Amino acid sequence: MNAAAVLPVAVACLVAAASVGVAAGPASGFARSYLGRLEPGAAPGASPTAPSGPGPRIRARGLLERRPQAVLATILCTVTLAWGLGHGTPAETALTLPVIALLGVAGSVDVVCHRLPDRLLGAAALWLLAVRVAQVLGNMLLVAPSAAGAWRVRRAVLCALVVGAAALVVWLIRASGMGLGDVKLCALLGLWLGYAGVGHVVTGLMLSFVLAGLAAIGLVITGRTGLKDTIAFGPYLVAGGWLAWMLAVA
């Protein structure tokens, strides 16, 4: 078997295992400590992001424990790995695995307390920027220099800015129910999917709203939430972005 073909696959598998380890270990540990700082009675000054006044409603606290996060990350990374390798994109898959693992933890935090931690979103954004810049530099130094890679990085950053600005406008409309964490996650999706193309960013956002709408209808019908209640939008943004990435790879 050709070693040049096996090496990217092996690297992608190692990255998948490392991503699961990060999600189940440091990321879930941070998520639990973040939740503790949000709860009423937390030590004053424990966190600059802790809100004043009554703390948020806490739901399904156990979701942030190590074992559930290990299971979630394993599912996300396994499906991502199988899909990416099945479509012959081991390098792109390896770059995406840490993003989806971190966003899985961030989405879980949103489910539990309707918050999206800046540190988890920021880590995913820094990873994306670092690997994209490294791709461009590697292409320029090791392969024939091309402006296409640099343009795709600029397009991704531009998509992040545009989508983030549009989400910020929606956030200013109080009836929208969107939080600042959702705004940042929308910008992150623009950065993630914008490298593949503007159309994939639009697809990801559309899928997110469709999934959230269907979930809201289901929750109202089953009586688990009221018409005026808000739902955590973060998990649906993550799911929509993930599905859009799969379509882009396919």
Short description:
This protein is an all-alpha fold and about 250 residues long. The protein has two domains: about 120 residues, no CATH class; about 100 residues, no CATH class.
Protein described:
By secondary structure, the chain is mainly alpha-helical. It has 2 domains: 1-115, no CATH class; 147-250, no CATH class. It is 74% helix and 0% strand. It is built from 8 helices and no strands. Helix 1 packs parallel to helix 3 (90-113). It is globular, with a radius of gyration of 19 Å. 38% of the residues are buried. Residues 48-53 have low confidence and may be disordered.
What structural category characterises the helix and strand content?
mainly alpha
How many discrete domains?
A: 2
What about the largest sheet? none
* Form type: globular
Give the termini distance in whole angstroms: 25 Å
H and E order: HHHHHHHH
| Helical coverage, percent range | over 70%
Mean pLDDT: 89
Fraction of residues in β-strands: under 5%
Task: Report Rg.
Answer: 19 Å
Q: Any chance you could write out the topology, listing elements then pairs?
A:
Elements: H1 3-38, H2 66-86, H3 90-113, H4 118-142, H5 147-172, H6 180-193, H7 198-221, H8 234-249
Give the tags.
single chain; 250 residues; mainly alpha; 2 domains; 74% helix; 0% strand; globular
